[in-house]
Amino acid sequence: MARRHEAVLWLQLLAGTFTSRRDAKMLLERWCMREQHLLSDFAAAPAAEAAEVTGLSTEQVHQAQQLLAQARESQARMGAFAEANIELIIRTDAAYPEELAHNLPEAELPYLLFAIGELDHLAETGVAIGGAHDAAAADAFDLHQMAAGLAALPVPMLGGFERGVERELLLRVPEVGGRITVMLPLGLDHAAPILALLRPSLEAGRALVLSPFLPEQVYSERGGQARLSLLSAMAGAMLQIEPDASVDDWPGARQLLARGEQVAVVSRSDSAIVRGWEAAGARINENCSSALTTLSAGWSLDAEAGAEPHALPGVEPIVFHDADEAIDVLGRSGRVPPALARRLRESGMFGYQDVEDVDEPYQDPEPDV
């Protein structure tokens, strides 16, 4: 119940009436992320101590503590999420996508993710897909062949369920044995038509639907653009088929290219948009087969994917005696790989993952007075 209680408090703070969402995220980043404290501990902390750690005023601390003390409504919402098979993932959860945390500044990360479907997809990178909003623009290409080729890759396809080529591929890939992760530009309360289209894929265990927005959030152009940035951050490659959006109109695309990831554009056009993608570093392909070859290069060790890390050629086992030694050694490289960071998070770093669940009735914490 400890993890569930934390999620309730995060929901209460970020969806509540605190001074601003920016201040709420600053509180969570400094108290929970930087100091690795539980939000439930903040609710009972002395105001002066909490203000010093978070950078908030004592008045703001009291306001936040009072808000957290009135979490019954958020607890009820969590119950409704469970009935609808919705999982709430908070920033400190082991399930939180490490690629997001690794590739985006903390200020740009969604601190809540609402999910339906296969949560295992969150532990993987994927191929972000996009293309013409008019599916007829891709008539020259065999989308069924492309879907079959993408389904053969060992990672999910990532998309925002944009109309046109992208949506066609997201619906076809699971039909031929592949997997997809969909990042919605709106809250799940407004996603019934999309979920209905994806129901066969969800029931087959081949789809994950995510929303970084509160369930009641309606669609907005800003939200639509924001979810593209998240998809780019989660991706280990990108595919664009006859794109009608420039590289600069796809948030995160240039950053993905800067990370050295493969970007394949399928087009027989010499348009300014296609030339722009090429100038940015994307590889232009005249057919689906060559694009699949480009994308497959990023997963050339598939045949050895089932091997233990120390069994791979040229890889020596690394043993750390404790967390301090791990941090010291890893710090010399300047970065912690997402997969390893995920393992560290699963080790119970934030204090509640290893707490045994106890079925107890929910009680509001007493506010600090």
Set out the fold topology.
Blueprint: H1 2-15, H2 21-34, H3 39-44, H4 47-54, H5 58-68, H6 72-83, E1 87-90, H7 98-103, E2 112-117, E3 126-131, H8 143-151, E4 157-159, H9 165-175, E5 180-183, H10 192-203, E6 207-211, H11 221-234, E7 235-241, H12 253-258, E8 262-266, H13 272-280, E9 283-285, H14 288-296, H15 323-331, H16 338-346
Parallel strand pairs: 3-4, 3-7, 4-5, 5-6, 7-8, 8-9
Antiparallel strand pairs: 1-2, 2-6
Helix pairs in contact: 1-2, 1-6, 4-5, 8-9
Can you put this structure into words, describing what you see?
The chain is 43% helix and 12% strand. The chain has 369 residues and is of the alpha/beta class. The chain folds into two domains: 2-83; 112-300, Rossmann fold, CATH 3.40.50. The chain has a nine-stranded mixed beta sheet with strand order 1-2-6-5-4-3-7-8-9, sandwiched between helices. Residues 301-320, 329-335 and 348-369 have low confidence and may be disordered.
The gist of it:
The protein is of the alpha/beta class and 369 residues long. The protein is 43% helix and 12% strand. It has 16 helices and 9 strands.
Annotation field: number of helices: 16
Shape: elongated
- Number of extended strands: 9
Please estimate the helix content: 40-55%
Q: Could you say how many structural domains there are in total?
A: 2
Strand portion: 5-15%
If you average the pLDDT, what whole number results? 84
Gyration radius, in Å: 22 Å
The strand order across the widest sheet is 1-2-6-5-4-3-7-8-9
N-to-C CA distance? 26 Å
CATH architecture of the largest domain: 3-Layer(aba) Sandwich
